[in-house]
Amino acid sequence: MLRVMMTVFSLSVGASGLSNQFNSFRGTSDATKGLVSGLTKAVNMFGGQTAASAGPRTRKFAKLSSKQILEGLRADFEEEEYLWSGKITPELYDEDCVFTDPTLSFRGLSTFEANLANLDPYIERLVPAGPGRRCELRAIRLLPSAGRSAPPVVEAEWRMVGRFALPWRPVLDLGGRTRYTLAGEGGRISSYDESWAISAGEALRQLVTPYAGDDADGARGARSPKGQEQKLQPQPRADVDETTPQPEHWSGRLEGKAAPRPLLASCLTAADGPMPVVILPGFGNALGDYVAPLAQPDVVGLAACLRRRGFSDVTVCPVDRSDWLRVLGGLLDPSFWAGNATVAGPAFRWYTERAQKTIEEAQARVAAEGSEGQGDESSGSTSDGRVLVIGHSAGGWLARATMLQAGPAWARQNVLCLATLGTPHAAPPPGVPDMTRGVLVNLNAAAPGAALAGTDGELGCGVGYVTVAGDAIAGDAQAPRSSPESIAFGSYEMVCGEGQGVKGDGVVPVCAAHLGPRSPDAAVKSSVQLTLPGVLHSINEAGTTEPTDRWYGAEPAMDAWMPLVLKAARSSVAMRRDESPAAAASAWDLMAGLLGAKG
What we know:
The chain is of the alpha/beta class. 31% of the residues lie in helices and 15% in strands. It has helices at residues 2-14, 30-47, 66-78, 82-85, 109-126, 200-208, 302-307, 334-337, 349-370, 394-406, 408-414, 439-446, 484-496, 555-577, 581-595, and strands at 93-101, 104-107, 133-142, 153-163, 171-181, 189-196, 277-280, 314-316, 387-392, 415-421, 464-470, 473-474, 503-504, 528-532. The strands form 3 sheets. The chain has a 6-stranded mixed sheet with strand order 2-1-6-5-4-3. The protein has a 6-stranded parallel sheet with strand order 8-7-9-10-11-14, sandwiched between helices. A two-stranded antiparallel sheet has the order 12-13. The longest helix is centred in the C-terminal third of the chain and has 23 residues, at 555-577. The radius of gyration is 27 Å and the shape is elongated.
């Protein structure tokens, strides 16, 4: 269940000392229980289903035997995969049944059903039905009676295995045990008590570790309910994972042919001088996704594509997948709960601070070279010591947040140009849940559009902006479940409120991926905007976990957007050298004419 994922973070920080025996509610710290309770409330707030939504329930049977309960539970496990699907048989449960797992306990069948209804959309997107997930019932039995007056108890031992539809293809393998006490009305289940045979550290390791297998059959195992350690599948690091179809990237690559020479317009020239690059990862991504995506050779990674174009200093902001669990720190922020969180809050401050440090270090390296007569403004080089920042997905708006937090003076000194790839810049419209809990709304209010472009006004400090979108997939609510079109529909709807027929890169719709002007009278009217046909959001084929050569960071796409980035960078330097608003406007007009940019 998705609640397992939500508890990994809280277990890691609040339940140290858990053993490899069954972990139960009684052995979990109060701090952990409070965190998971808060997470559950947040998901329910987004989902909207409540216990009060349920109408009167009609019972088919007045009374159920222990055997009927046992067989009904068996069917829920084996036929419905209820641990993943949430499809239980309500007939088996008393209306006041108490549901308990190691981190949460509450009363009410209707509450249980509402929780699952709110979680189901996330589960189906992250762990879609099919060969990538399964639910095993290892044993189910009626326990011997504990006494004449004691109610019957059914015990089930199980294992749930699922491969997550994330770029690094993690597999969660969790064993557990559930005891059902049959003391409800008509012999129904009055108590559901679930315990897990997995440590918090092991669960976290599984969720952040790339998996190289074809499906969930060879999953890394948790400790089984009987205490037997399942075999850990070896995962050798290889340049190419032979179990997964490999994209070509360029003609002849799979036969050993070297990368083609990039378009001249997408390469640095001698006049540009040194121009360091910092890549800011998107939500859920890590450093390795931009160096050797999905265990492919380094030569096809975004970093290598940049180096082939003359960028000798390329740094990926050091973000691990597990770092994204820090976003849950927002639950400790009252503004987060109120939907009015800011970039200064705990949910994303860790990221902006790390991004700021990485950019400063890159700029310092160029400054050191400049002390030898290179890279300063008077030398005639384009970069003038500042950094080209490339933000992928959420990394794009987090780059904007970093500049806002650090201030215009900092941006003026450190940032030459910001290029965003598939970034959801627009906040969701009213009535659509804001997954950033107000951060994006407040960012856009404080630093609207291309806020730091040009040199006019209080914010203008000569930062160039290029926003790149893809229109590879149109959302379709009627498409088969787990298809790229169906996934795109759900994602676009969460970003902009509409999904049917909307085009985008499979995750972010085009309508949300571009930046306008900071104000109607700004000298620089907007970002340079480019929409690429057929380009996908991430390093995997949409709706699959297979690597792709159709995303923003692949060779063909970079040849399309890098010339615009270089021109924006050169224009930024030109504006900085003559900082009058008229000169800034003239430089923008020239660039817009050359690029056909939208204003």
